[in-house]
């Protein structure tokens, strides 16, 4: 793989979170247009955890992450001699969605827990097992896979322990697949990053959590709790020495406000953005 | 005679060319042999890679758990490594496919071999081959975006991913596979048998069902078995349309992951080398290869038999 | 035979003939139905994607904006991967075919190779993907490159090339071999001067059919990691300074047509689905064109020959 | 040909022509097959004997491009006419082929086949008829203990007798034999010839043979074909002793063929 | 056999035996082929004529399981000995087959091939030799204006003459013909026979024929084979007029074969 870099057009390799993917994809697209093919960028989706595994193995230059790096991952990076900087790029609201035909409009965190906790495995199979006023319909769950930052965050906040979840649901690192699943299954419920809901509003119905609907406003004013969170990119400082990576990250930070809004996330407040830019500059 | 000898010795330059020629022939044959052996090398490489990585897998997971566990959640914190859910997905989609492909393929084969006018046969066969030439990802598109919505209008509770639709489309894809091998087998039944039946006053259908079909049975079963093997190994249709949740279910109206879909799903986010999830796909792959290998060997054995009989 | 007897025969016969005709209709319908379903599905797809098939579609990179997205990197990638596949599978497959048909004697090695080739043809394509992942990507360290994909697909279609080569060679009458030998040709001269030129057409047909299969293969390329956002072209195979040919493209990251389609199929937005339909239509046209060429070539080469 | 008139004709070809596509294989043939007699068709290889024989049960209808002209009467029905279904003809006129071609089924099922295709389901009736046919074909004693065995395990001569039993089972009015012994050894041949001499007591026999000895040995009438034409027809003794055409004579003396 | 001694022998088989695997096809044959004469091999079908002929250019080496015993001398070289490469033998002894088998290439390339396998590159030399060979094969006038045409477009007789030209082009010492006219019509046959009578002025000819007339018409010597053995050999007139074996006589009178 290093061979790929050593020859031909300079390439920036990015992988990781599906939540961050839409922003990074947008930045990559615009960046390559601006550079007119002189630099190239590849962006993959393996979930935050999957991304860090590769990042700390030196296989990628930048890792998308929808949660901060974990201790175990810090260790892995350290032992491989990978140093990095963490740059927040936007705010996200993990959105709980159901099929549009579903009469529900709101759900509480307790109900979510009842639905998703490990103890529910193989037991909670119908909607009315959670709340007797809900329909007597099969419950079909869709959610991010185990490498996902969203999964970690959601399980932590809802089930009380990161990674603690029932496993009998349809898992996918690609949130598009989850959107497809929920939008075409009457008994479905799923959760993923806000951008994916925003782009598919017509096919999905988002649920208010404890009475608060996810939206740019509720995230901004902090009322969408507990499922709103910052999302990041991690940049390898070694890679940052390469001009194409540096150029890309600079371009990223300059444009993330506008592009994150475009794809459906909440831009960082300008002071945080400045902080990120100066953190990047202090690297040089 | 001496003159001749002289001529011969003048030609004795030939001796050297002769040696050159012979060694060149040897070298060429050896190179060709190496090329032919490359296919054996491929098999060895496949088996080596699969077994080597699976050994690492089985160092952490017991074979008993692998073969009898009813949950497959290798990526989760509470990891379970029972292959049965993936197997059930594979078997259900393949069974649905066979329900389509075997009857339709067999009827098509009987029709083409015993009923159709040769001209019609010439026209139809390339069309059937086209069915088999279409990329499977396109079939996946059909299953997910055309057939599933149609099925959902009949069964409103059918989830967007389901094994039924994937199996049906896969069956459609496999029809030409069944029909062409079966037709081959039926057409290699000697004319004498066919005439023997007609001479008894049998109709075409009676001849086809009572004489030709039983006589070609080993070839036809080879077609069926190879078709099953094909369905078991089919990947894109089930990945796109059957769902990604490994669950032990025999209901085609459910969604479920197959062995192949699991491999694709995991490798989509190209998995980090050397991790346990990296090993799982090789263990799953090994299971798949063993299944198809057994089927293929039985299939070839049967096919060979029908070629030997006639 | 008495008249009543004859009468009995006739009524009985009428019943049987009705069943017979019924089956003839059913059989015809089954075939028609299979083909029509396929044609219907294809048309449905083509219609929903046709408005996307514009010159821009072929000249644009994939994009987050569906209406701007195109298949430039995909078809270029497919072309380059197919090039590598052909370069590897054709010599290897044809050479194996020649060995098996013209050289191998009846011994266990020959049997082993034969059985092996038939079995390889039945190995699911995803397994080739695992081979590629384990061998090419990691052991040989080729990375997620055009070279790795080309090699993988080459191995995948090798059995097809071998089998069609053998059939082509078998179709050449032995009398031509004997004629060449009788003039003092060595074995290789016989093969090179005669057998190969005469079977060229049929071998080419087989190669094209093999490649058309490879073009549509998705699974084995996914495992080596081709499903990423690729909005650029591989390096150019030509360069300004000596030696003017560059092999950097072999190591470039890439995407191919079926992967691009798969990517779009898994997107929920209707506009992306239209792109998937458009890409699928182009893909079908590619494989159909190749198959048609193959059928035509087969016909054309056979026409001139009456051994 | 006077003797014929005293015998009832079972089948009669009148001005029969047959074409394989554009190839004119049977030319203007007139032939009377007397009832309950053995009529032999002889002639050099390729003269059209098989082709003519297969007109009598309309086997040619199985392949596209074949064409008949003229008439063949079976009793009073013109079996070449459009109204008559070839399958009906084949139920009335059965056939035994050159190479024994038993179906890959049991001995019993081979013989029963002729009844089953007719829709016969009654087990006892089938049992009875199978036994009777096997007896008529002189095979019963050899196979009665292994009716469930595969027919393909029989010897060549037994297989051919099985095919004869199969042809007999549904009481055909006439049986066509196309060189039925050419694939058999002399002993098997002898038993089949013997069998045929007995069969003619119930059924009309038309047989193609390339062995003049065979024709001479047991046929009552002989027809000689040459290049698609019927050159000579008469009682076997007459044809063999004083043929009226020089080609017949040449053939019988071994000069052509 | 006295006449032979006066003629120079070109090739000589001594105690030759040949086996197809375990089947003994040529038995203890001794045969002298006189130089610049036409020697015909006759005998009933399956007696081993073709097999014997193909020993003379070691065609049997192409297939596994074949075995020679004994010797064949070409001039003074035993061409069956291990030291001699069969390819070398075939360059000295060329062959014309029963069915014309031109390569699907141009007329010119068909003839030139005999030179090309020998590595000849000089265009002018090849041109010259091709023309000469075509003239010797009496084909030049018919094809000189279309040397680039496909050989398969020629008529059967022309194709066979082309094969003869192909066999002649590299000045072989001997040519083997295996029933070269059996696939041709009488007119083409006549022209090939005429051609062979001329060829013998330059080259030794050994020919298998199943037509006795042909052997009688233009061969100088005739060898009669029977069941793999060589029964009779002598000048053609002698063999035909007063054969010393009864089988030869029977064969010549048409009683066997
Ligand atoms: N299916 C066919 N299509 C075209 N021509 C045919 C076909 N079958 C036979 N013929 C030709 O019809 C002529 C008569 O053939 P037929 O088989 O009836 O001869 P035969 O007298 O039975 O010869 P044999 O004794 O060799 O069986 C022959 O010239 C043969 O080549
Ligand atoms: N490749 C072979 N393998 C085994 N036996 C063979 C082979 N070729 C020929 N024979 C047998 O060898 C014997 C001689 O055959 P050969 O072809 O030399 O006869 P022939 O005299 O040329 O006959 P014909 O006049 O029919 O060509 C025959 O019995 C034949 O069956
Ligand atoms: Mg015949
Ligand atoms: Mg011969
Ligand atoms: O953002 P994730 O893909 O890691 O959930």
TrEMBL record, chain B:
The chain crosses the membrane at residues 27-51, 91-115, 127-151, 157-178, 207-227, 281-303. GO terms for cellular component: plasma membrane. GO terms for molecular function: phosphate transmembrane transporter activity. Pfam families: BPD_transp_1. It comes from the Bacteria. Part of the binding-protein-dependent transport system for phosphate; probably responsible for the translocation of the substrate across the membrane. Keywords: Cell membrane, Membrane, Phosphate transport, Transmembrane, Transmembrane helix, Transport. Belongs to the binding-protein-dependent transport system permease family. CysTW subfamily. Residues 87-299 form the ABC transmembrane type-1 domain. NCBIfam families: phosphate_pstC. It is a multi-pass membrane protein. The keyword Transmembrane helix applies. The keyword Membrane applies. InterPro entries: MetI-like, MetI-like_sf, Phosphate_PstC. GO terms for biological process: phosphate ion transport. This is Phosphate transport system permease protein. It is found in: Cell membrane; Membrane.
TrEMBL record, chain C:
The keyword NADP does not apply. Pfam families: BPD_transp_1. InterPro entries: MetI-like, MetI-like_sf, Phosphate_PstA. It is a multi-pass membrane protein. GO terms for cellular component: plasma membrane. Keywords: Cell membrane, Membrane, Transmembrane, Transmembrane helix, Transport. The chain crosses the membrane at residues 21-51, 71-100, 120-140, 146-165, 195-212, 218-235, 247-266, 272-297. It is found in: Cell membrane. One of its GO terms (molecular function) is phosphate transmembrane transporter activity. Residues 75-294 form the ABC transmembrane type-1 domain. GO terms for biological process: phosphate ion transmembrane transport. Belongs to the binding-protein-dependent transport system permease family. CysTW subfamily. This is Phosphate transport system permease protein PstA.
Automatic annotation (TrEMBL), chains D, E:
InterPro entries: AAA+_ATPase, ABC_transporter-like_ATP-bd, ABC_transporter-like_CS, P-loop_NTPase, PstB-like. CDD domains: ABC_PstB_phosphate_transporter. Signal peptide: none annotated. GO terms for molecular function: ATP binding; ATP hydrolysis activity; phosphate transmembrane transporter activity. One of its GO terms (biological process) is phosphate ion transmembrane transport. Residues 11-252 form the ABC transporter domain. PROSITE patterns: ABC_TRANSPORTER_1, ABC_TRANSPORTER_2. This is Phosphate ABC transporter, ATP-binding protein.
């Amino acid at each position: 793989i290093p061979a790929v870099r050593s020859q031909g057009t300079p390439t920036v390799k990015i992988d990781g979170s599906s939540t961050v993917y839409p922003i990074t994809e947008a930045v990559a697209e615009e960046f390559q247009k601006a550079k007119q093919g002189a630099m190239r960028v590849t962006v993959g989706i393996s979930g935050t955890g999957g991304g860090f595994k590769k990042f700390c193995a030196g296989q990628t230059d930048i890792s998308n992450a929808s949660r901060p790096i974990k201790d175990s991952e810090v260790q892995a990076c350290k032992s491989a001699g990978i140093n990095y900087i963490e740059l927040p790029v936007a705010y996200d609201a993990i959105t709980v969605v159901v099929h549009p035909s579903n009469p529900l409009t709101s759900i509480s965190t307790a109900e979510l827990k009842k639905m998703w906790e490990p103890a529910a495995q193989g037991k909670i199979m119908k909607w009315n097992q959670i709340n007797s006023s809900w329909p007597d319909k099969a419950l079909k769950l869709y959610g991010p896979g185990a490498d996902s930052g969203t999964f970690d965050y959601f399980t932590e906040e809802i089930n009380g322990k990161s990674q603690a979840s029932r496993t009998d649901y349809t898992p996918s690192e690609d949130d598009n697949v989850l959107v497809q699943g929920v939008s075409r299954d009457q008994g479905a419920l799923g959760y993923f990053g806000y951008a994916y809901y925003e782009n598919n509003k017509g096919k999905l119905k988002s649920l208010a959590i404890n009475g608060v609907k996810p939206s740019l406003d509720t995230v901004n004013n902090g009322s969408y709790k507990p499922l709103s969170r910052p999302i990041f990119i991690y940049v390898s400082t070694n890679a940052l020495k390469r001009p194409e990576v540096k150029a890309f990250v600079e371009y990223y930070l300059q444009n993330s406000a506008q592009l994150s809004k475009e794809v459906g996330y909440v831009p960082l407040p300008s002071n945080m953005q400045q902080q990120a830019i100066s953190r990047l500059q202090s690297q040089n | 005679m001496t003159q001749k000898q002289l001529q011969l010795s003048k030609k004795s330059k030939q001796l050297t060319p002769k040696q050159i020629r012979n060694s060149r022939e040897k070298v060429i044959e050896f190179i060709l042999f190496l090329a032919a052996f490359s296919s054996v090398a491929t098999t060895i490489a496949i088996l080596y890679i699969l077994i080597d990585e699976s050994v690492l897998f089985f160092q952490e997971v017991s074979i008993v758990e692998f073969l009898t566990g009813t949950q497959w959640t290798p990526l989760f914190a509470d990891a379970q490594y029972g292959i049965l859910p993936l197997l059930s997905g594979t078997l259900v989609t393949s069974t649905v496919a066979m329900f389509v492909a075997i009857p339709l393929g067999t009827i098509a084969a009987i029709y083409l071999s015993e009923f159709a006018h040769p001209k019609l046969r010439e026209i139809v066969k390339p069309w059937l081959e086209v069915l088999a030439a279409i990329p499977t990802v396109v079939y996946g598109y059909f299953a997910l975006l055309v057939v599933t919505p149609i099925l959902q209008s009949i069964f409103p509770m059918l989830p967007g991913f389901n094994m039924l639709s994937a199996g049906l489309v896969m069956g459609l894809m496999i029809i030409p596979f069944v029909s062409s091998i079966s037709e081959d087998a039926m057409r290699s039944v000697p004319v004498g048998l066919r005439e023997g039946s007609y001479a008894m006053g049998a109709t075409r259908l009676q001849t086809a069902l009572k004489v030709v079909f039983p006589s070609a049975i080993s070839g036809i079963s080879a077609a069926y078995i190879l078709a099953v093997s094909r369905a078991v190994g089919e990947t894109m249709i089930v990945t796109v349309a059957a769902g990604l949740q490994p669950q032990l279910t025999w209901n085609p109206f459910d969604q479920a992951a197959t062995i192949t879909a699991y491999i694709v799903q995991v490798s989509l986010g190209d998995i980090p080398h050397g991790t346990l999830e990296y090993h799982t796909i090789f263990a799953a792959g090994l299971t798949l290869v063993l299944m198809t290998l057994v089927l293929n060997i039985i299939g070839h054995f049967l096919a060979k038999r029908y070629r030997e009989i006639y | 035979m008495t008249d009543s007897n004859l009468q009995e025969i006739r009524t009985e016969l009428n019943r049987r003939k009705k069943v017979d005709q019924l089956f003839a209709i059913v059989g015809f319908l089954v075939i028609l139905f299979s083909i029509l379903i396929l044609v219907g599905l294809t048309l449905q797809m083509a219609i929903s994607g046709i408005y996307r098939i514009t010159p821009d579609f072929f000249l644009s990179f994939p994009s987050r904006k569906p209406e701007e997205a195109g298949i430039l990197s995909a078809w270029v990638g497919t072309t380059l991967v197919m090039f590598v596949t052909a370069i590897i599978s054709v010599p290897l497959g044809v050479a194996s075919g020649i060995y098996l048909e013209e050289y191998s004697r009846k011994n266990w090695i020959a049997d082993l190779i034969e059985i092996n080739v038939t079995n390889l043809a039945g190995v699911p394509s995803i397994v080739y993907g695992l081979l590629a992942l384990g061998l090419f990507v990691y052991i040989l360290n080729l990375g997620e490159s055009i070279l790795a994909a080309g090699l993988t697909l080459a191995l995948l279609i090798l059995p097809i090339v071998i089998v069609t080569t053998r059939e082509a060679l078998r179709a050449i009458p032995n009398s031509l071999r004997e004629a060449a030998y009788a003039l003092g040709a060595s074995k290789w001269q016989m093969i090179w001067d005669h057998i190969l030129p005469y079977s060229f057409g049929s071998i080419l047909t087989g190669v094209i059919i093999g490649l058309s299969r490879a073009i549509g293969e998705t699974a084995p390329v996914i495992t080596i990691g081709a499903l990423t956002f690729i909005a650029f072209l591989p390096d150019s195979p030509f360069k300004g300074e000596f030696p003017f040919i560059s092999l950097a493209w072999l190591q470039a990251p890439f995407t191919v047509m079926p992967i691009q389609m798969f990517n779009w199929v898994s997107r929920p937005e209707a506009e992306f689905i239209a792109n998937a339909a458009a890409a699928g239509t182009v893909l079908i046209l590619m494989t159909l064109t190749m198959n048609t060429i193959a059928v035509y070539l087969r016909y054309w080469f056979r026409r001139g020959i009456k051994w | 040909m006077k003797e014929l008139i005293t015998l009832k004709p079972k089948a009669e070809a009148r001005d029969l022509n047959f074409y394989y596509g554009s190839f004119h294989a049977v030319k203007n043939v007139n032939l009377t097959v007397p009832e309950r007699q053995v009529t032999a068709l002889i002639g050099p290889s390729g003269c059209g004997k098989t082709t003519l024989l297969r007109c009598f049960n309309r086997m040619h209808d199985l392949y596209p491009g074949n064409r008949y002209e003229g008439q063949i009467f079976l009793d009073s029905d013109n079996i070449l006419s459009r109204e008559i279904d070839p399958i009906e003809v084949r139920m009335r006129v059965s056939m035994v082929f050159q190479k024994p071609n038993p179906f890959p089924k049991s001995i019993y099922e081979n013989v029963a086949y002729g009844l089953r295709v007719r829709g016969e389901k009654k087990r006892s009736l089938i049992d009875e008829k199978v036994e009777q046919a096997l007896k008529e074909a002189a095979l019963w004693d050899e196979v009665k203990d292994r009716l469930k065995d595969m027919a393909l395990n029989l010897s060549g001569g037994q297989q051919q007798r099985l095919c004869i039993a199969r042809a007999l089972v549904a009481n055909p009015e006439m049986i066509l034999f196309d060189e039925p012994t050419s694939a058999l050894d002399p002993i098997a041949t002898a038993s089949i010839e013997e069998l045929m001499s007995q069969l003619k007591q119930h059924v009309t026999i038309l047989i193609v043979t390339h062995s003049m000895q065979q024709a001479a040995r047991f046929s009552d009438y002989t027809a000689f074909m040459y290049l698609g034409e019927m050159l000579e027809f008469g009682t076997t003794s007459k044809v063999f002793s004083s043929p009226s055409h020089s080609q017949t004579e040449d053939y019988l003396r071994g000069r052509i063929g």
